[in-house]
Amino acid sequence: MSLIFALEMLGTAAFAVSGALAASRKNMDIFGFTVLALMPAVGGGTLRDLILDRTPVFWVANPWYVAVALAAALAVFFRRFRPGGRTRLLVWMDALGLALFAALGTEISLEFGAGPLVAVMLGVTTGVAGGMIRDVICNEIPLVLTGDIYATAAFAAGLVFVGADALGIDRNLGLVAAVAAGFGVRAAGIVYKLSLPSFKEPPDTN
Amino acid sequence: MSLIFALEMLGTAAFAVSGALAASRKNMDIFGFTVLALMPAVGGGTLRDLILDRTPVFWVANPWYVAVALAAALAVFFRRFRPGGRTRLLVWMDALGLALFAALGTEISLEFGAGPLVAVMLGVTTGVAGGMIRDVICNEIPLVLTGDIYATAAFAAGLVFVGADALGIDRNLGLVAAVAAGFGVRAAGIVYKLSLPSFKEPPDTN
Amino acid sequence: MSLIFALEMLGTAAFAVSGALAASRKNMDIFGFTVLALMPAVGGGTLRDLILDRTPVFWVANPWYVAVALAAALAVFFRRFRPGGRTRLLVWMDALGLALFAALGTEISLEFGAGPLVAVMLGVTTGVAGGMIRDVICNEIPLVLTGDIYATAAFAAGLVFVGADALGIDRNLGLVAAVAAGFGVRAAGIVYKLSLPSFKEPPDTN
User: Per-domain residue ranges for chain A?
Assistant: First the structure.
């Protein structure tokens, strides 16, 4: 439990930094930094909790998620943290957060009565919806919709957890397998620069 | 009940195709297709259920809504379904979905304690909010806000249902009348290419 | 209570007019006016109520919020109300609404079990989230994120209420102090045209 929470905080910080960096590209003020950091850090899980009627929402119950996201936003704003040479570390923390949030989101959804299809969907939502909201606020089409192997990794994590659950495999083992699968898919995407094919007009196949 | 559900699935498919076509215009990947299909298909009803604290959210309780929307998204992505010659069929299925979702949304809202004003508003929300989210994600001002006789049709459906309910008319009869009204208004808009006047600057009247 | 409600209606009208004016700039139709008026008027409080699982949502329980917002939208659309010479009155009504909504939002959040950090955050959300949604629908980066002394005023109101609450000060006195603080900060921003520093690239300090 305590290990999972520590990893969650790492992922939360990485997600929040992605928002703060988006705010810096748009020359926002300090409030813009905090809003854009909070969106990816807690947005997806909030949507999941609202849809599942899981109360209180996770960061109302435990304000550490918000505190860590705000700290990350302020660190970027006041240039205490400049990604510069640490970009690679950030990418890997982000990959870990993505896999972990998707796996935990899937688990929570099953626990709250969702069927397997909906649980995987809410697991993916947990991992990627907040980043989508960040991009929409920045007036950009969400990056995750246009080719990156990113949502795919969240999907893999969700699918593995649902599969492990269906096979009666122990919850903790299922989580480890799901996080490994999600992280592995994302890592392959990063290392080999893979991307999903995007739809091309005019239709040229079939 | 079973007839209503069958019609709901038709409407869901038409709404999902509208999202998948938006995704194709933005050259999204397969994940983008599923996200943009789900928004119009289940977004408005989700917002209504969250606001009414109606749990579980309709598609968590019954995953067929999600399954049909995903199937429609995949059919467009893999070019199993090319609207081409079937555009007119799609438009009419969409009109049916709009009227039906607005009428059902109004009914559900009354049932969950909303007054008539709020019930009509949540009926319109059920019909059009998901399409608005689709457009916002595509980085476009929602079409429904700029002149189409579309929200008007949802409004007509909601108004007729609330009126029938106030007159003590049987629920099923009220639903039929509301769907007919919404569909009729939308049909008139399509056939006669009607649009609402939009606001013009600088002020030229009064 | 009745005084607070009257002030809330003033603030709701001012917030709704801000949405209707945004709709007029985008040449929307009458439906666009109502949607964009409702967003700032009730959007932030709706998000707060959903996150706190506070049911029914405030405007479902009391439709006057929606009715006043719709009336403001229609007044602008039909040019019964032209801000013209009354811009300054509007700005001050808006400032009052902002301070009041942030203070009340903070109070409600504490009452529903949020800790002080989250309560201030939800107070700010109550004051500014609806306006952000208005801007996002208009396909613009939310104004509040880019330098205005606006969210800062909401933050001041929330902070003062939480502080007064922690000191055991009477609720009504705390509310008055919080509204005064929020209004004062916003007034200083308006009168002296203050703005928050925004982030500049490339990094030039540290």
Answer: 2-191
